[in-house]
Amino acid sequence: MIEISIDEEQLKQLYLSKIEERLQAIEQEVFYFSSKELCRYLGMSWNTIVNNLLIDESFPHIRVGNRWLFPVEDVKLYMKKHTRDVMENGRDLLAYRREKK
Fold this sequence. Notes:
Blueprint: H1 8-29, E1 32-33, H2 35-42, H3 46-54, E2 62-64, E3 67-71, H4 72-88, H5 93-100
């Protein structure tokens, strides 16, 4: 008789790592976020994005007709820098915006 034993924790780690690899591959295939995708990615409403990010001319975006497109890699880089700047200046976004003006 053959007995097969499966380590469930090891199996779980294996499939989670494969899922993560696939998600990263999918993410790299996307060159632009739509406005809805950007909202979902940042966890912000469109109004928050408009009032806090789009007012900054350096925020990466292009407009095609009435559609907004956001280069994925540029948005990631901008958000890392923006977050670091806000954190280094008191962690208050509104105060940071006032100082930046």
